[in-house]
Design brief:
Elements lengths: L1 H23 L7 E7 L5 H15 L3 E8 L10 H10 L5 E6 H6 L12 E3 L2 H10 L3 E4 L1
Parallel strand pairs: 1-2, 1-5, 2-3, 3-4
Organism: Flagellimonas okinawensis
Protein name: Sulfur reduction protein DsrE
Keywords: Signal
Length: about 140
């Protein structure tokens, strides 16, 4: 009986935590929000130019633009000569450059060596699906 009570408390605690996480990832659905998953750093130029064009076209309706870099290419994210031009292009506070934590671990990249302007998500694919549920338009390159 005591174990059943403990399991019930644990389940309620976990469910409460899941609700809290879900509430934290809500974005303004009245705006146009975008997410791109890419496996190649050089594609960032075209992606960021597209973000710029969308920002101009959408005007005040432009919301968030997230780019998640996944796969073996995360090895290049610590090479400042390679990544700096893209960081400069992504100056807007609405454009977020993110690394896939799963890929970082798989390919042995130390997240603390990433540029300070980059964020890390635990799993890029899952993050993409979560944002799609929140109304983000998505593409994978």
């Amino acid at each position: 009986m005591k174990q059943l009570f403990t399991l019930a408390v644990l389940a309620i605690t976990l469910l409460g935590g899941l609700t809290q996480v879900s509430a934290q990832t809500t974005y303004n659905k009245d705006q146009h929000n975008y997410i791109v998953l890419t496996r190649k750093i050089p594609q960032l130029k075209a992606i960021l130019l597209a973000a710029e064009e969308l920002s101009t076209a959408d005007g005040e309706a432009f919301g968030e633009f997230h780019v998640v870099i996944c796969g073996e290419t995360v090895k290049g994210l610590t090479d400042m000569d390679q990544i700096q031009p893209f960081l400069d292009m992504a100056q807007s506070e609405k454009i977020k450059l993110l690394a896939c934590g799963f890929s970082l671990k798989k390919f042995g990249v130390d997240a603390t060596k990433l540029p300070k302007e980059m964020g890390v998500v635990d799993n890029g694919i899952l993050y993409n699906f979560e944002l799609q549920k929140d109304g983000f338009l998505s593409i994978t390159l």
